[in-house]
Amino acid sequence: MRIERVVLRQLAMKMKSPFTTSFGTQLMREFIVVEVVDEDGTVGWGESVALLNPWYNEETMKTNWHMLEDFIIPALLGVHLEHPDEVTERLQFIRKNNMAKSAFEGAVWDIFAKQQGQYLGQTLGGTKSEISVGISIGIQKDASMLIRMIGEYLETGYKRIKLKIKPGQDVEVVRGVRQVFPDVPLMVDANSSYQLRDLDHLRRLDEFNLMMIEQPLSHDDLVDHAKIQARLETPICLDESIHSAEDARKAIELGSCRIINLKIGRVGGLSESLRIHDVCREAGIPLWCGGMLESGIGRAHNIAVTTLANFTLPGDTAASSRYWDQDIIEPEVKLTDGVIQVPTNSGIGFTVDGSTLDRYTVASKSFSASSL
Ligand SMILES: O=C(O)CCC(=O)C1=CC=C[C@@H](O)[C@@H]1C(=O)O
Ligand SMILES: [Mg+2]
């Protein structure tokens, strides 16, 4: 394929309910959608999952726009690509900025799968026809509200509940949930809000038979996570600490975790996701696909990657209706009896709804190879 045209769109989508983690609350999701068109007019779609603020990692929507406009698009516009793997190869001159790279690379993978006449999951090597998913619940002020929300989500069919925790809102919150839901598959995500000195406190979570404790320590740590994993019965899951297959290999060798939350944007795209998948499968480390409050485009990419064999735990790819009054894809992502049916159409498997996309677009810019 030859990259003929790229359109960057900044979207603003109001969340149906605020989402609070240890580092902040999201009310409005502002993010970038990348549209890539090849010489045959085949269109691919990608989504930057960077937040407005550099809380989760060093990237923001604005840094992503800068990287795309000033480095990534100039490096790839007008270029002939045999395979999407070449995107990562050609972008190696850019340090980090994985979410910006992933947004472009995902669109190229969409085109590539469409050119093969294949669903993206199949092109990646995935074999599943349905995926079971969990749901991530932000920090709630009111314990009874949390219990009600969990009951409703379990009713809807979600297979796993993920609670956000932070110092002062952890052991007693989980105890309260376990008193009502003693057997539900339950996990917690700390988003790096604890220190090594909190080990004895974190060990109190061992009594609740949690599936995992996600990213208790610093976003860039592997060594101290290995120290606390050696003292915890509950598996540690790493999210923010894993940026590449090399990070995954080191974390596994050090014993920093027993589970990894893979996020396509955090690791720089689908090509690196495939490498991480294989490293973890070789080591017997299960994966699940985390969420970044994506729109339907990012959600579609998450479903595709979750079709791979070593994604054996329910991820955070909840239904569109959990987040948005109206998503930008047709059909929206839905849960049927607690699972998402994997699409069979080519590419990301969903159609981008142009009128809804335009309605949420607050800024856009086009780049054309013919104007080079
Ligand atoms: O997309 C979802 O539903 C999960 C969202 C979620 O848990 C997160 C989104 C963004 C950053 C983090 O706070 C958090 C995570 O760590 O997974
Ligand atoms: Mg997380």
TrEMBL record:
Residues 143-235 form the Mandelate racemase/muconate lactonizing enzyme C-terminal domain. GO terms for biological process: menaquinone biosynthetic process. It catalyses: (1R,6R)-6-hydroxy-2-succinyl-cyclohexa-2,4-diene-1-carboxylate = 2-succinylbenzoate + H2O. The active site is at residues 164, 263. The keyword Metal-binding applies. Mg(2+) binds at residues 189, 214, 239. The keyword Magnesium applies. Pathway: Quinol/quinone metabolism; 1,4-dihydroxy-2-naphthoate biosynthesis; 1,4-dihydroxy-2-naphthoate from chorismate: step 4/7; Quinol/quinone metabolism; menaquinone biosynthesis. Pfam families: MR_MLE_C (PF13378), MR_MLE_N (PF02746). Its EC number is 4.2.1.113. InterPro entries: Enolase-like_C_sf, Enolase-like_N, Enolase_C-like, Mandelate_racemase_C, Mandelate_racemase_N_dom, MenC, OSBS/NAAAR. PANTHER family: O-SUCCINYLBENZOATE SYNTHASE, O-SUCCINYLBENZOATE SYNTHASE-RELATED. Belongs to the mandelate racemase/muconate lactonizing enzyme family. MenC type 2 subfamily. Converts 2-succinyl-6-hydroxy-2,4-cyclohexadiene-1-carboxylate (SHCHC) to 2-succinylbenzoate (OSB). This is o-succinylbenzoate synthase. It comes from Alicyclobacillus mengziensis. The lineage of its organism: Bacteria, Bacillati, Bacillota, Bacilli, Bacillales. The gene is menC.
